[in-house]
Design brief:
The complex is a heterodimer of chains A (about 280) and B (about 575).
Chain A lengths: L11 H4 L2 H17 L6 H17 L4 H25 L5 E4 L13 E3 H25 L4 H10 L4 H29 L10 H8 L1 H23 L19 H23 L1 H11 L5
Antiparallel strand pairs in A: 1-2
Helix pairs in contact in A: 2-5, 2-10, 3-5, 4-5, 6-7, 7-9
Chain B lengths: L3 E12 L4 E11 L3 E5 L6 H9 L1 H4 L3 E9 L9 H5 L2 E4 L3 H4 L5 H11 L4 H15 L14 H13 L5 E5 L7 H16 L3 E5 L3 H4 L5 E6 L2 E6 L1 H5 L2 H7 L5 H11 L11 H13 L3 E3 L14 E12 L5 E12 L3 E5 L6 H9 L6 E6 L2 E2 L5 H4 L3 E4 L12 H11 L4 H15 L14 H13 L5 E5 L12 H13 L2 E5 L3 H7 L2 E6 L2 E7 H4 L3 H6 L6 H8 L12 H7 E3 L7
Parallel strand pairs in B: 3-7, 3-8, 5-6, 6-7, 13-18, 13-19, 16-17, 17-18
Antiparallel strand pairs in B: 1-2, 1-4, 8-9, 10-21, 11-12, 11-14, 14-15, 19-20
Classes of the chains: A mainly alpha (about 280), B alpha/beta (about 575).
Chain lengths: ~280, ~575
């Protein structure tokens, strides 16, 4: 799956300065990090919906988000079940057995509070995951690299990152070819049990793979050094990474939303939470 | 500015702790010249390129003697990025030279490293994509490019550095015929623009049109140096060192040897055709009505049957690589499959050996559906030998390497020894049984890969591109082994290749693939006469066949496949040639 690669398009989000997008991603992650109470789910949902609206603006298919949800479904269900039983809740939804750990929850009882807490954690995960493609899908590596240069990150480091990303499919392909080559000698790794796999089965694949990759890395080094990589001059910046009006508008919106969210979180979240629960006829 | 771009005198080079790669090399390249360096593998061609580009000594160490002057400096004395401003280098493998995520970023990489102003970089990119024929591909990811396009992108990335000297190290050796044509077209444009170019290659027939000077290296020494006409017509010398002379040149050389008189050996195809016509009209050459025996029509029992096979690679969008293929392969046949990369050859073979499963249709081996076997079980029946042995060698000795497959299929211990012995002897590596596989030469590593498959005793042997990365001398080693398996052990052989000379020499039956379909399937001799189909698939018959075809109006039988046959159908009028 090309999970995190740039998709060329010309939208508001694509045109934004990568730094603006980076600020947005970082603020979201801070908020996700701070939201640790069940009530915070309200704020998280606002940010998740905002992210999905940005997805629409950036013309990233929502189908892709559904794909992510599907991929994470197992983890989400796992979190909800664990929290349902482990959380020290007071409103039992159903009971399997009784086993109270000293000073803790009754492990046999699935509680409403646990369920809500589990959902909140899942929403946290989804929110964090939903903002990342807004950066990676809409920012070409070149723009990313040049932004890093702007931010005084040495070109060497951003190059290593980009070249690394670029090499992933090559490594996958090489792995596949080597695995196929060994299959042709009746060596079938898919048919082995996990212990055999872990201890010796990879040797016939990893040995040629490493040797091949070393050779390719060598060729790559020649290719970049003969194109003056590392010349002691100031590298040309090719992309326009100035701040435009759209960046100020976007940043103003994001920062305002962030400040507002924090304000609500620290002062009014309890009030809003009770309004919401009573409206939805949920137990307090 | 001086007219001499490169001057090399008494150059010797020895790798650190290694062999002497160059010995007392002398030559000069004038501005605007197209300078071709040829020679067998290990002759020192790449070493020479590396010295001119400053890769030696900046990346590889060694001891150098003699003088090198490139555009007024010695690459030995300065960092690579200084040399890179004047000398651009293109290597063999297109894949590892592309490091950026788009063609545009790739082309911008070099000049941006040098701090060239932005507008100038954009101007250069515009210019470069035009030269290499990649206009409109600027935003493509390398993954979305064919091999020829990748190599042209790599060439473009060198051109945006505005080099005064271009060093091309076997730029077409890993490409299919179409990719080779594309890259050579770009190189021709550069030559016409007056850029000084030095290129190493094995492809004599194509290079005869481009070269201004030719230098032949052998074991690090210059054995010939001069105008292409002199060097490339020195058939005896070329064959001695292992460089392929153009087929038409060899033909006239053979005529000359048989005493037809003093002829000026042509190196270009058109010149050869004109010369032959003239000699026929002057009654120096005589057209013989030779009929070639049709290859045996009696076919054995079917061993592999491919029935309505369609294969689609999943993905966005899905790619249909095989479209409703029907094919029957008989016991004891020797088959060649040709076609460009992406035409479906490899996909077809992977379906046969079970690495892929047909999306539709079925494949039978001796009447039984192969889908019920695992790849491992099938490997006892059908052996596939891949292009690059380095994808599979991993043990510490040749013996171990052969043993690996045998153990996997559960051959009893006492029999294993025997089979290893037999397989290593068969490929001629029995004296190297304890050697570390990676210490072997590339040719020997390929032989070892063959031994590893042959030991498993398959009834059908499939070889993927047996001539890749091999020089003229070494190129038929694997094909000869296949022939031995075929003639002496009655094995069925399938060869996938881009090498038409190879097909002409070995394959009795030829299959042409294009775009997931079989365009032609028949006796090799007949398929090479199907001009429309070959043209559609961007393939050309061997030069000697085309030569005979051009002389069809003179009464020459166009179904010639080899030089020996050519001599048979068009021989000296005065004296009979004994073939």
């Amino acid at each position: 799956m090309r999970a995190i690669e740039y998709i060329k398009a010309d939208t508001f989000i694509h045109r934004l300065n990568p730094i603006s997008k980076l600020v947005y991603v970082i603020l979201t992650l801070i908020l996700v990090f701070l939201s640790t109470f069940t009530q915070d789910i309200i704020i998280l949902l606002v940010w998740l919906i905002t992210a999905l609206i940005f997805w629409r603006i950036a013309k990233i298919s929502i189908r892709y988000f559904m794909g992510l949800v599907k991929l994470l479904m197992g983890i989400i269900i796992f979190i909800i079940i664990i929290q349902g039983f482990m959380y020290r809740g007071e409103t039992p939804l159903f009971t399997l057995f009784h086993y109270r750990i000293p000073g803790g929850a009754d492990l046999g009882v699935f509680t409403y509070e646990g369920l809500m807490f589990g959902i909140m954690i899942s929403v946290r995960v989804l929110t964090a995951i939903a903002v990342l493609p807004l950066f990676t899908f809409t920012t070409s590596y070149l723009r990313f690299m040049e932004t890093m240069t702007r931010l005084k990150v040495p070109f060497k480091y951003s190059f290593v990152f980009v070249a690394g990303m670029r090499s992933v499919p090559m490594i996958q392909e090489t792995w596949q070819t080597v695995a196929d080559a060994q299959k042709l000698r009746a060596f079938d790794i898919d048919k082995m049990n996990i212990f055999k796999k872990a201890f010796k089965a990879y040797i016939p694949i990893v040995t040629p793979l490493v040797l091949l990759l070393l050779r390719k890395a060598n060729d790559m080094q020649i290719a970049i050094e003969t194109r003056a990589f590392g010349a002691p001059v100031k590298r040309t910046i090719l992309e326009d990474i100035h701040f435009h009006a759209r960046d100020y508008i976007f940043l103003a919106f994001v920062i305002a939303l962030f400040a507002f969210s924090l304000y609500i979180k620290f002062f009014y979240i309890q009030d809003i939470w009770s309004i919401v629960t009573s409206l939805l006829h949920l137990p307090g | 500015m001086s007219d001499i771009v490169v001057s090399v005198s008494n150059l010797s080079f020895q790798y650190e702790g290694g062999n002497e790669a160059l010995k007392d090399v002398n030559f000069e390249i004038k501005r605007g010249e197209f300078f071709v360096v040829m020679g067998p593998n290990g002759a020192g061609k790449t070493t020479l390129c590396f010295i001119l580009g400053g890769i030696i000594p900046n990346m590889y160490g060694g001891i150098r003697k003699g003088k090198v002057n490139v555009l007024g400096f010695d690459p030995w004395d300065q960092p690579i990025y200084e040399t890179a401003k004047k000398v651009g280098i293109l290597l063999q493998d297109p894949e590892s030279q592309l490091v950026m995520p788009s063609v545009f970023a790739e082309l911008a990489f070099g000049p941006a490293n040098l701090g060239v102003p932005k507008e100038e970089i954009f101007r250069r990119i515009k210019e470069a994509v035009k030269i290499v024929g990649l206009e409109g591909f600027e935003d493509r990811h390398p993954r979305e490019l064919s091999g020829g396009q990748k190599q042209r992108a790599a060439l473009g990335a060198v051109l945006t550095m505005m080099p005064e000297l271009l060093v091309l190290d076997e730029p077409t050796s890993q490409l299919d015929p179409l990719g080779t044509l594309e890259v050579l077209a770009a190189v021709r444009r550069l030559k016409e623009m007056g850029i000084t170019i030095i290129m190493t290659t094995h492809k004599t027939e194509e290079i005869a049109y481009l070269a201004d000077k030719v230098l032949i290296l052998n074991e690090g020494e210059v054995v010939a140096y001069g105008y292409p006409k002199e060097v490339l017509s020195n058939v005896e010398l070329l064959e001695n060192v292992g460089v392929k002379p153009p087929a038409v040149t060899t033909y006239f050389y053979e005529l000359k040897k048989s005493g037809i008189g003093n002829i000026d050996l042509p190196i270009l195809f058109e010149d050869a055709v004109n010369l032959a016509k003239k000699m026929i009209h002057d009654n120096l050459l005589k057209v013989n009505k030779a009929e070639f025996k049709k290859d045996s029509q009696s076919k054995g029992t079917p061993i592999i049957e491919i029935k309505d096979v369609t294969f689609t690679y999943p993905g966005e969008p899905p790619v249909t690589a095989l479209k409703n293929i029907n094919l029957t392969i008989h016991e004891g046949e020797f088959i060649g499959i040709v076609g460009q990369n992406g035409s479906g050859k490899t996909t077809l073979v992977k379906n046969i050996v079970g690495l892929l499963k047909p999306s539709k249709g079925k494949i039978l081996f001796k009447g039984e559906d192969v889908s019920k076997y695992t790849v491992a079980e099938l490997s006892k029946k059908i052996g596939l030998i891949l292009q690059n042995p380095d994808y599979q060698l991993f043990t510490l000795s040749c013996e171990e390497e052969v043993k690996f497959g045998l153990k996997n299929i559960g051959v009893p211990e006492d029999e294993i020894k025997e089979r290893i012995e037999e397989a290593l002897r068969f490929v001629g590596l029995d004296h190297l049984r304890d050697k570390y596989p990676f210490a072997l030469s590339f040719g020997d590593r390929r032989k070892l890969a063959v031994a590893a498959i042959v030991a498993m005793n398959p009834e059908v042997i499939i070889m993927d591109e047996p001539t890749t990365a091999q020089d003229y001398k070494g190129r038929y080693i694997l094909a000869d082994l296949a022939k031995k398996m075929h003639d002496e052990h009655g094995r069925t052989i399938i060869m996938i290749t881009h090498d038409m000379d190879l097909v002409a020499k070995y394959a009795e039956r030829l299959i042409v693939m294009w775009n997931g379909e079989i365009l032609a399937d028949g006796p090799t001799r007949e398929v090479f006469q199907m001009h429309d189909i070959l043209e559609k698939a961007f393939l050309k018959p061997p030069q000697i066949t085309r030569f005979a075809q051009e002389l069809k109006d003179e009464g020459v039988n166009p179904e010639v496949l080899t030089i020996e046959e050519m001599i048979k159908v068009l021989s000296p009028a005065v004296k009979e040639v004994s073939v």
